[in-house]
Amino acid sequence: MTVDDTGSGTGGHPGPGGDPEPEPGPSAGPRPAGPEAAGDGAAEAGPHAVARSEEPSAADRSAAHNTTGTSDDDPLALRLEALILGAERRYSPFQAARSAGVSMELASRFWRAMGFADIGQAKALTEADVLALRRLAGLVEAGLLSEAMAVQVARSTGQTTARLAEWQIDSFLEGLTEPPEPGMTRTEVTYPLIELLLPELQEFLVYVWRRQLAAATGRVIQTADDEEMVDRRLCVAFADLVGFTRLTRRLEEEELGELVEAFETTAADLVAAHGGRLVKTLGDEVLYVADDARVAADIALRLIETLAHDETMPELRVGMAFGTVTTRMGDVFGTTVNLASRLTSIAPRDAVLVDSELAQELRRTQDAPATEEQAKEEEEERYRFGLQPMWQRPVRGLGVVEPWLLTRRGGPR
């Protein structure tokens, strides 16, 4: 895996049509939601708008089906969609944009940022889609967000929730909707199950989001100055399973999926429990950050130690660097991140390599001895970590780096 691997979430819910629809002139301002605003009122925009708001073409219906995963001929699929969305299909993209009082161009930007595919002019949108558009546009009009920031909000939310939704369907609902009795179909079980689970899962999602928002806000307000809110000094670490490509050829798909899930779960739990923040998982690799060098180093060694006791797990290698990091949309970027990634690729099996900045920070906090000679002269238990210099070497794109092998002294604390 590389540090630049990113995924764009794709949802199971429709987005706008392709080319932006021309605005209908004087009536482009906000309108109340309703049939008058979304349906017959479109006739005021002239013949072109009337044609676009009539029955969708076969291509539009096909695009809507591919995006929503539901067919107009499948009553249960439509009932499930209405249950989850809380409303029935009512608007084409043009009608929804007009009802929300936003331009088709802006509506398209929002929907695509959220990860939804184009559906032409099929009537596949609901009152919830109109309300979401109105809220985002309202934040821009009120000056609380710039248009670019509102699009970023849509994109980050779409990417995060798309992955969550895919996981819940693949790993959660799929197992729970197995027919409990012979003769029952999965579809007969799915509707009442989702009806029961949906409000509980929604409440839990909001709870976790508020908790995470409170924690992130607390970190920001403790920052020394405004510049550090975006460009901060952090410890960045990659933990990578060794020989994962070979495993993919040897293991069955189900076994491989279980291994990846076990690795991600173990890593996520250790990172969270000991004060780090998991940025993302990339299958055979996890990326985490920590404000404190001691915390980052302890997590790295705990990962090695924990997986070493699991015979089903491959060996692990970790690379870490300390320095200025740019944060955007929950991700991290910059030279420090790239250096941590490169150190991971050259780290020995079941070992942790750190850069000279992180090594210096551990010495400054007296968590590691200044020299090995000093360590030999003092008690073993005084220092948390040991640092062994490795050969300097050129690293592509970063020049010559000085890696240090990080070890534990005195056991975990």
Plain-language structure description:
The chain has 413 residues and is of the alpha+beta class. It has two domains: 25-160, no CATH class; 227-408, Nucleotide cyclase, GGDEF domain (Alpha-Beta Plaits, 2-Layer Sandwich), CATH 3.30.70. 49% of the residues lie in helices and 14% in strands. The chain contains 15 helices and ten strands. Strands 1, 2, 3, 4, 5, 6, 7 and 10 form an eight-stranded mixed beta sheet that branches. The protein has a two-stranded antiparallel sheet with strand order 8-9. Strand 2 (277-281) and strand 3 (285-290) form a beta hairpin. Helix 4 (75-85) runs parallel beside helix 9, helix 6 crosses helix 8 (147-176) and helix 11 (253-273) packs antiparallel against helix 12 (293-308). The two termini are 31 Å apart.
